[in-house]
Amino acid sequence: MLKYVIRRLLLVIPTLFFVALITFVLAQAAPGSPFDKNETKPLPVATIERLNRFYGLDRPVYEQFVVFLGNAVRLDFGVSLQRDRSVNDIIGQGLPRTAQLGVMALFVALAVAIPLGVVSALKQNSAIDYASVFLSTIGTTIPSFVLAIVFIYFFGVLLKLLPFVGWGDGLDRRMIMPTVILALGPMAFLTRITLASMLEAIRQDYVRTARSKGLGEQVVIVTHVLKNALIPVATVLGPAAAALVTGSFIIETIFSVPGVGREYIRSILARDYPIIMGTTMLYAAVIVIANLTVDLVYGMLDPRIKVA
Amino acid sequence: MYQRRIWPVLSLLLITSLLVTACTSTTQNPSASAGGAADPNGELVTNMGGEPDTIDPHKAQFNTEIGQVMMVFEGLMTLDPATLKPIPAAAAKDPEISADGLTWKVTLKDGLKFSDGTPLTAKDFAFGFTRTCDPATAGDYSYVLYVIAGCEAWNGMNVKKATPAELSAAKAKLGVKANSDKEIQFTLAEPAAYFRSILYMWVGMPARESDVTKGGDKWTEPATYIGNGPFKLTEWKHSEKMVFERNDSYRTPAKLKKWTKVMIGEGAVAFAAYRNNELDVNGISAEDLRAVDSDADLKSQLVDVGGAATFYYGFNVAKPPFNDANLRLAFAKSFDREAYIRDVQKIGKPVATGGFIPPGIPGYDKDDTIQKYDVAEAKKLFDAASPAAKDALKGLKFTYGSSARTKTRVEWVTQQWKTNLGVDIGLDPVDRTAFTALTKKPETTPQLFSLGWIADFPDQQNWHTTVWISKTGISSKTTGYSNPEFDRIVRAADKEQDPKKRDDAYLQAGKILSKDAPAAWIYYDASKYLKKPWVKGVTDTAVDSVLGEFRLYEIYVTKKG
């Protein structure tokens, strides 16, 4: 087990290295420069050359990459090309909000999806079952940015129930809409998975055995069905967490949440290379760690799977 | 199981009904508060779109950046909102200019103070100008100060390669110095009459050296971002909002107590927030116009503002067909600009009369009708064009940086030329970056393409000379335009100290330009915004980087609701 963990941890290094390499090369290869933000009023060529020189962008890409790597291993991602602030400062400011949004959304998704999936598996063709189908259809078919605008008009403008601009500290009413909308996608996905694996588990021989030996229905469901049905759910938590992280780009932009996702989008549009690199590495690390954690937890949940 | 299928259908219906309700909803009219007195504790809430990249006056480049500088700082000069001509601000009077036009002395008003109450001196101004020229500042906008002796040489140095001695030698040659606490002196590279207008700009804002040193990269945070303008920055929650409050040390205290600027990036969300009264003012895009037009309340809140930009079709004058001036003018006179704005562009002011410089900007020539839409006249010019040029029209292409928007626009104008002149023009969409690259070299410059110019400061020099002077002009470089007569007139006007003679000379140059037609003027920039009835005292100008830039202290709100 320990060997396995160490091997997996060591594999993180080349993964992050290649993510960095590919992102760096692609970002630099994308047309445009950090200093041509103003389409209708380009800066004088001499100014652009001066700025390129100042920020070291006149150097060959491989040289820039080596410099980047050297600093990155010390967790120094440099300074934004457009803002007088360091990448760590900008990410540090946005990360708590993005993390809070992601964790709250995951919590909401799980809190709704698991009970809903379980109940609809037990009571097929009931109102709850239909509700779960309704929810998962909306969550999977309608993109979050469409839902966001619909929610804003309905709950924000028409009913004036919920605010839709900004974020806040601690817990704030402004967090409700972005959290719920971000949660809808994974919620739909998790509901379907829970439902499917519950239905599968119910039909298993060991459930029949449990019932035939006279165990109560509640005991059968909780200790035999649910415990096994949740294993597939746990395995998809990694991808679900990744979906939350990437989904928050759009949600943060629409709801003006001052998080990392909004910064990520801006940096790509503005060709702000240090921020692109810093945020991408952060996301890569989050996704790698989420997947690793799930793989390890998987082994603990299901003794049939040997991770070592 | 068939029963289950009905739910997706029902849910879709529900969503559709939500959408329809949302679209047909009318804005609730906040009880009219017109005619109320200024609320002494009034707060204005506006949207700044996104986090400004910098609010450092010596680096700012965009309106979201400059707009914040203009609230917190005041330059030596400002602009008269009625004429956009420079008038004294922190300066006590107009600059004293030496006979050769090269030495400018500016005396400060008495009793000037920073917002924390400490006195403001000429040294703080000298520091500001010097900092803009300093290569270590690495600002985007330093080039407008290249008119100051020594600024270009110093600013262009490579800070990594040059020795400290070389850098300080270059700095010593900079033509900026504080003669006393009250007088600042500039030495210019040429007798530039337009320097008066540059003195209003953010690049020359005063700053306290101690604040910049103490704050370092973070000196633009509220603690050290201390200015002398009508407002002070009291809070900056990055990517969330900026809060400005009245600066009580300013000589004309602002009527607003507080001005909060939130950062909503999505236009549709900002529009919704405006309808919800969460924003008092909101910019409107062409896409939102339909929603505004169909709502009487919103329509009554719509404000039109002119802009400091002109957009035009550029001709490659170096090659046939457009080396023929008659042909160029024929093209320029044969498309209906009014229809273009109405049907295609939606927001903008068509160039009906007037040349390169937009209305509201010094130098606008209302008598310039040279490129006016006139099909009969255009046909005559077309017939007068040389056969060689007309031959070269075969296979002519309009090259443009492709996007859904530009395509409709280009299709529209080529259709006009086909109808009015009988010329077939192909469409040549290229990647936007590739397009920029094409226009950089004369050999690759397309025959026909779109161009535009947004002014740095409202003076004719920044239009005619900067854009159209032979070889180095921004648009001369791309079109290949060169007229020695035009060059001579504008260069003389740049240095002319007599305002009347100067204005007349530029008008003359402007007419030459319209007639030479290296470009066909299409429209002047304009914008629209919505303003709640309780927001008052706003004086808009064509060069505003922030709502009511040159009369910020006059803006007030009456009690809401």
Can you put this structure into words, describing what you see?
- The complex is a heterodimer of chains A (308) and B (561).
- Chain A has helices at residues 2-29, 45-54, 61-72, 87-122, 127-141, 144-158, 176-202, 205-212, 217-254, 260-270, 273-301.
- Chain A has 308 residues and is mainly alpha-helical.
- The longest helix of chain A has 38 residues, at 217-254.
- Chain A is flat and about 85 Å long.
- Chain B has two domains: 50-256, D-Maltodextrin-Binding Protein, domain 2 (3-Layer(aba) Sandwich), CATH 3.40.190; 306-525, Dipeptide-binding Protein, domain 3, CATH 3.10.105.10.
- In chain B, the strands form five sheets. In chain B, strands 11, 12, 13, 14, 15, 16 and 17 form a seven-stranded mixed beta sheet that branches.
- The longest helix of chain B has 19 residues, at 6-24.
- Chain B is globular.
- The termini of chain B are far apart.
- Residues 1-34 of chain B have low confidence and may be disordered.
- Chains A and B meet through helix 2, helix 4, helix 5, helix 6 and helix 10 of A and helix 1, helix 8, helix 16 and strand 16 of B.
In short:
The complex is a heterodimer of chains A (308) and B (561). Chain A is mainly alpha-helical and 308 residues long.
SSE layout and pairings?
The complex is a heterodimer of chains A (about 300) and B (about 550).
Chain A (H helix, E strand, L loop, with lengths): L1 H28 L15 H10 L6 H12 L14 H36 L4 H15 L2 H15 L17 H27 L2 H8 L4 H38 L5 H11 L2 H29 L7
Helix pairs in contact in A: 1-11, 4-5, 4-7, 4-9, 4-11, 5-7, 6-7, 6-9, 7-9, 8-9, 9-10, 9-11, 10-11
Chain B lengths: L5 H19 L18 E5 L15 H10 L4 E3 L6 E3 L7 E2 L5 E5 L14 H12 L17 H5 L8 H9 L3 E3 L4 E5 L7 H4 L10 H7 L15 E7 L3 E6 L11 E5 L4 H9 L5 E4 L4 H5 L2 H5 L1 E14 L9 H8 L4 H9 L3 E2 L24 H10 L2 H5 L5 E5 L2 H18 L4 E5 L1 H7 L9 E7 L9 H5 L5 H6 L4 H12 L3 H18 L2 E13 L3 E2 L19 E2 L4
Parallel strand pairs in B: 1-10, 14-15, 14-16
Antiparallel strand pairs in B: 2-3, 4-5, 5-7, 6-7, 8-9, 9-10, 11-17, 12-16, 12-17, 13-17, 18-19
